Amino acid sequence: MTSALLLAHGAGGTVRANFSPVIPALARKRPVFSVDFPGSGTTPRATEPLELDDLADRLVDAAGGAARFAVLGYSMGCAVAVRAALRYPERVSALVLTAGFVRIDDETRARTEKWRRLLGGDRRELARFIMSVVLGEPFRRAMTPEQEDGFLEIVALTLPTGVDEQVDLVQRIDLTADLPRLAVPTLVIGTKHDRLITPASTRALADAIPGARWAELDSGHAPALEAPAEWTRLIDDFLS
Question: Residue 223 belongs to a domain with what CATH number?
Answer without folding.
Answer: 3.40.50.1820
